[in-house]
Amino acid sequence: MAGGHASASPKGTLTYSWTGNVGPLDPHRYSPNQMFAQAMVYEPLVRYREGGAIEPWLATAWTVSPDGRTYDFTLREGVVFSDGSPFDAAAVKANFDAVLADRARHDWLELIAQIREVSVLDGRACRSVVRSGGVHGDRG
Asked: pTM of this prediction?
């Protein structure tokens, strides 16, 4: 019986796909396995860079109180939703309020368990107050 051997170095690229229902894209009604699809549609206030550092995204800047419990975000100007409505602090608060109103669905996300409240400071600024300090130490 003749034996074969695998090449020591890969040749070419293997691309594959599989079918799967990603489910509803409503960010308030997701399942954890749907988050990859939602990440292609919705954008966060901040996001992780390669290496784990946090960078601004829809929030251009943020400050953290000395006790680590209050986060004030300044929001990017000129952003609109696909229907043309403005992205502003009221929209941020409405989205957080929808998630916080259904904590049982989202309790697997520790961050959601930590958020006490989100408030509007002005049209381009919002505040998040968390239950304990140090949710994330990187201030951007």
From this structure: 0.76
